[in-house]
């Protein structure tokens, strides 16, 4: 299936202007909370710098930190698996499920499993995974992908959630009371937790020196799942490593503040070893990450701790919705990660930005997001993934602008045409500028003309 | 002090008044203003579209025009930022010199000329649009995302203008959506962003919206005109150069 390019999907999203305004205002509120939380910490900019440097250091020795982590995890009694890509990741999980004859599976939030399309893979084998994060559960009922990595159902309003719950959980039709709806979801999920035999979680931070890992949630759903089930599988990308436990003192302080404006996530659960009778697995996944690590201009994107602050601040994301990015990880961050995985399919994403730079400023690990967007544009063009028309247009423009006399001549002709035959510029089809904007008035003389007439000796 | 006046291509062609105002302000402050006649474009339209390889001709032409001045000043944060970040040449020494000596107008007035008062007057209610490349790229003002002391070079200058009432929108440093070729390739989002910026200014009943970048203003002006709005756009240079009649 051919995906719709971002610009087109965004245009469709904006057709519902009140809906767009709501989406924009809701996410702006999250951004404002983040500002307030960040400003409440005097050493905020220092924390960002430290976090960025710790990640830079870790990425520069990722191979040895991963091996150190594996060694310590095994010593703790955890079973460690390595997956080169999403396919291997899914197969490993399926093997664990089959070997143990599992039927009931719960999963807390994990963008990695979204990236690997684990749910779809298992569903094709007739195995159902219940997503236990409230937002994830809502979009799972609706057979939609999450539109935001922290707030998966942020594209939906309570009326839509009510309708979904009415269909799937039998809530009263038209009852939009959030308290009522959440309570129903809570009871529904409570049963899933009690029944579960296997629990899948993501990993926020994996500590090399201890072989333990930390999972952050606000709903406690990761803990509910892992405490009830006999098997815990934690899935992590290779970039989740931090060297020492003490570094959590920085990362846990910046993560929730950047994500939602909370001082810390409600639950920051440390998993070190399986309890008696429990199996604990970790699946460490590459899936293109080492390739990204090998691209010097884009390596820093692997510092990401998935807070989504760049989503919430992005004026384009807020007005186009996560689904318009047609990838598991949307937003500015997704736009610098996804071209690495499939450049052709994601060639539109680095262009879904005005390069305003706000993403870079909110990033708690100081990823140069907007600079990377610019650099991806160069790579995408040089690899030939830009429309031929655009390429020719740019070539023509460059030809004229490199030749002063030709530039002045062309400018004069265009301005004369704009004055004499403005209708030529008013085709809504050929001139997207004019669809919702007037074209600038063309003056008789350029500044260059004026200067020659009035100033030049 | 020899100041090379760089008038970006679209200002040259469509907004000569902003260029004239820039030149006159610099002259008033005693600079020897030199306008090299063969200048064209900084090359940003190609580079931001992914074709920086095509902007080599612009780079060469830029260096040819601006290698014999002490400073280069332009009424556009965006074009200045492009030169600062991306101007290269075989003669890299000259490119380095130019990258280090190019200034956006308000930055030049505040940081280099250290202007403390102006003889200008503009008795209107004016909304300030903060252009991203000038702000986040050149650091013309503090940024809402960062934990840093508050300052603004454009505001400092506007506060010296007699009669001017300055108002800032609620989201005072959100992007207007112009974004170079973004404005046509992502037309729907671009216009929606512009409309939202305008709405926040209109609430304050401003008579003008000003900015240090004409490109943002051209985009906002296009939307305002289509809406039939009485609100006008004006480049900050024209305000700083104005007199109360």
Gross morphology of chain B: globular
Number of strands of chain B: 8
Q: Rounded to an integer, what's the Rg of chain A over CA atoms?
A: 25 Å
Sheet/helix structural class of chain A: alpha/beta
- Main sheet: strands, sense, barrel of chain A: 6 strands, parallel
- The counted number of beta strands of chain A is 10
Please work out how many helical segments of chain B DSSP would assign: 13
Largest sheet of chain B: 4 strands, parallel
Overall pLDDT of chain A, averaged?
A: 96
* Terminus-to-terminus distance of chain B: 31 Å
The quaternary structure here is heterodimer
The structure class of chain B reads alpha/beta
Which range does the strand content of chain B fall in? Answer: 5-15%
Q: Tell me, what's the shape of chain A?
A: globular
Largest interface: A-B, 78 and 73 residues
Strand content of chain A: 5-15%
Radius of gyration of chain B from the CA trace?
17 Å
State mean pLDDT of chain B (0 to 100 scale): 97
Low-confidence stretches of chain A: none
Low-confidence stretches of chain B: none
Distance between the termini of chain A: 65 Å
Any overview of this molecule?
The complex is a heterodimer of chains A (457) and B (245). Chain A has 457 residues and is α/β, with parallel strands linked by helices. Helix content of chain A is 52%, strand content 10%. In chain A, helix 2 packs antiparallel against helix 12 (248-259). Chain A is globular and about 90 Å long. Chain B has 13 helices and eight strands. In chain B, the strands form two sheets. In chain B, strands 2-1-3-4 form a four-stranded parallel β-sheet, with helices on both faces. Chain B has a four-stranded parallel β-sheet with strand order 6-5-7-8. In chain B, helix 11 packs across helix 12 (214-227). The two termini of chain B are 31 Å apart. The interface between A and B is large, with 78 and 73 residues.
